[in-house]
Amino acid sequence: MKELTLDSAVVALHAGGVIAYPTEAVWGLGCDPANRAAVHTLLQLKQRPEAKGMILVAAELDQLQGWAVLQDLPDARQREVLESWPGANTWILPAGPLAPPWVTGEHCGLAVRISAHPLVVELCRAWGGPLVSTSANLAGEPPARTREELDPRLLTLLHGWVDGRTGGLAQPTPIRDALTGQVLRS
Description:
The chain is about 25% helix and about 20% strand. By secondary structure, the protein is of the alpha/beta class.
């Protein structure tokens, strides 16, 4: 387990690796959402069921093309989503043709966020697309807010981490359903 540069993180992601990196509020685990084996490795590490689905983070809207469908929303809701990005707002959008069941879980939507966190943006741009983003903790354990708080049991199972600071939010990003506006996590 080692600290990764952006370039070595991208190499690890292409190899099906799972990495840790800071997000808006907590440290996250990420991998290639199109790589079923990588997502399953991440789910096993977290002891998380596939049925729950995953969140994808991206650097810009273009990176979500094919993964989620914004055009199916009413105009007012589209504006609300777009005005909240980039930022610490996760929305459930209708899943697009690129969104496989190992990412959507038992849902017909996909949780996505266009981050304003500088390191997440750099990482997604270096990677060239969205990444899975879930808190870097084992099921039932509190999420890590610093690199030093990452569980040593988890660290030994990762390809590495990209060092940095979280965005300082007190809570993980809110999750809202873009079709209904319902808050699923505040």
